[in-house]
Amino acid sequence: MTNFFRRTITGAFIVIFVLGSLWLHPISFFLVGAVIIVQTQREYYTMVRGAGVRPQPVAGIISGFILYVTATLTALGWLTREWFLVMIPVISIVMTIELFRKNEKPFDSLAHTFFSILYTAVPVSMFPFAAFNRAGLEPLVKMNGIEFSPGILLGFFLLLWTFDTGAYLVGSLIGKHRLFERISPRKSWEGFFGGLILTLLVAWLLSGWLGVTDRKGWLIIAVIVSVASTIGDLLESMLKRSLGLKDSGTILPGHGGFLDRFDSVVMAFPLVYLFLAIFG
Fold first, then answer.
1. Positive or negative, the Cα torsion across 17, 18, 19, 24?
2. 109-124: string of b/e by CB count within 10 Å (b at 16+)?
C-alpha cells in the first residue's frame, strides 16, 4: 500500500473518530479530548527521553488530565473558576517529586514535564468552554440537564483538516517555493495559499450551518486556522529536528503519532477561541 493511500485511510478514520465523538454526545466529547491529551503527552515524554532527558511522564499526564477535568466541570458550571487553583498543589507535588529522583539535570526534567502540559493539555482544556453551556448545533444524542453544542469544535476541525488537505495536495502538485526550508523542506508557499483558498471556500459554505458567528467571522477563523496551524506544524517539526526524529510516534499509519496529527491544534485553537471570546 502506498503512503498516499495509507495516509488517506488513516486520515478518514481520524476524521470519523474525532468529529463523530465531538458531535455524538457530551461524554464522547469529553473522552476524545482526554485521549488527545494523554496520547500527545505520552508521545512528547517518549520523544525527549530518547534525547537523554528524564521527565516525569506519569505525573505530567496526571497533571494534564486533572487540568482537563477541572476545565470540563467548570465549563459545565459545576465548579467555580477558583477550582483551577487546584493546579497549585499539583505543580508543587511534581516539583517535590523531583527532589527525590536523583536526576543529574533536574530542571531539564521539570522544564519538559511542565512544557508538555502547557503545549498540549492547556489548549485541549479549552475545548469544554467552547461547547458546554452553549447553544447552536445540537449533539446527535442529547444529555438531560446539560446545554451542549459542538459547533465551534466541528467547524474548527473541518477548517483545520481542509487546510491540511489543500496544502498537502497543492504543495505536492505545484509546490516549488519553500515556505521554511530550514525546518520543513516539503512545505511550500503554493501549498499554503492553496490550502488557505480552499479553507476560505469551505468556511463560506459551512458558515450558515455551523452558526456560532456570522459568515465574516468564519472567514476570519479560516485565516487564523491557516496561519496558526502552519506555525504549529513548524514548531513540532522544529522539536522533532532538534531530537533527530522523523515522527512523534507510529500509532497512526501514514501520519506518525498523535502529536504529528494534532500539532496544529495546540497553536490554532487557542487563537480561534480568543477571537470568538472577544468578537464572537
1. positive
2. bbebbbebbebbbbbb
Q: What is the DSSP letter of 248?
A: S
- Residue 188 — φ and ψ, nearest 5°? -130, 160
pLDDT of residue 260: 85
CB atoms within 10 A of CB 268: 26
User: Who has greater pLDDT, 258 or 201?
Assistant: 201
Each residue's pLDDT tens digit, 233-253: 999 988 888 888 887 877 766
Question: Which is nearest to 179 in space by CA: 242, 234, 251, 101?
Answer: 234
User: Residues near 228 by Cβ (< 8 Å), separated by ≥ 6?
Assistant: 264, 267, 268, 271, 272
Q: State the residue range of the domain holding 85.
A: 3-279
Position 4 pLDDT exceeds 70:
no
Which among 168, 132, 124, 166 is positioned nearest to 258, based on CA atoms? 124
What is the enclosing helix (H) or strand (E) of 179? Answer: strand 178-180
Query: C-alpha grid cell for residue 64?
Result: 494534564
pTM score, whole prediction:
0.92
DSSP state of 188: E
**Which residue type does 67 have?**
L
**Into how many domains does the chain fold?**
1
Residue 112 corresponds to which cell in the numbers above?
A: 519538559
| 3-state SS assignment for residue 1 | coil
